[in-house]
Amino acid sequence: MSVSARLAELGIELPLVAAPVAAYVPAVVHEGLVYTSGQLPFSDGALPATGKVGAEVGADEANAYARTCALNALAAAADAAGGVDRIAGVLRLGGFVASTPEFTGQPGVINGASLVLGEIFGDAGRHARAAVGVPVLPLDSPVEVEVTFILA
Q1: Spatial contact of 88 and 152, defined as CB atoms under 8 Å apart
Q2: Residue 21 lies in a domain
Q3: What three-state secondary structure class fits 134?
Q4: Can you tell me the distance from the alpha carbon of 128 to that of 98, in angstroms, rounded to the nearest whole number?
Q5: In this protein, which residues make up the domain named Endoribonuclease L-PSP/chorismate mutase-like (predicted)?
Q6: pTM of the predicted model, to two decimals?
Q7: Which of 42, 104, 121, 142 could be disulfide-bonded to 57 (CB atoms 3.0-4.6 Å)?
């Protein structure tokens, strides 16, 4: 099944590619891979929340934001690759969670990104991953995700 058909089956519509907030491009194609820049959970051009996970933002909310980040990354990759059906799978995902010092649930937060990519790509969505806690992210976003996709 094509990626576009799978997205339709899941009822997922990819967002428009988020405009960069600094001097970079959303995604780059190189030697059979698409590398995305860090994607924030922009929805309709705005962040749905700001602050730290474990304080202003709950873990379940942050998990949903990580999912949005992954969909934003897929949109950026598809745009760079010439269409979503040019994306064959996921190689690596890096997740960053702006969190309080005592919050240790970063892997659970980033599962929001990993699980949606698994739903979309099936076995080709299995990937290596890092989930890192950081003191602050751009624009005070609670979550940021970067993904390396495999081209078809």
Answers
A1: yes
A2: no
A3: strand
A4: 21
A5: 5-143
A6: 0.96
A7: 142
**Which tokens in the block code for residue 75?**
């949109």
- Domain around 54: 3-12+27-151
Distances (CA, A) of 13 to 16, 30, 33, 74, 85: 9, 26, 23, 11, 14
In our burial notation (b when 16+ CB lie closer than 10 A, e otherwise), range 113-140 reads bbebbbebbeebbebebebebeeebeee
Distance (Å, rounded) from C-alpha 13 to C-alpha 44?
A: 13
3-state secondary structure 11-34: CCCCCCCCCCCCCCCCEEEECCEE
Asked if the structure places residue 22 within a domain, the reply is no
Residue 57: give its domain's CATH number: 3.30.1330.40
Sign of CA dihedral 35, 46, 134, 70: negative
- What's the pLDDT score for residue 18? 85
Distances (CA, A) of 88 to 99, 110, 150: 33, 21, 5
Tens digit of each residue's pLDDT (9 = 90 or more) over 85-114 = 999 999 999 999 999 999 999 999 999 999
Note whether residue 20 is domain-resident: no
11 backbone φψ class: left, alpha, beta (φ>0; ψ -120 to 50): left
Low-confidence ranges of the chain (pLDDT < 70): none
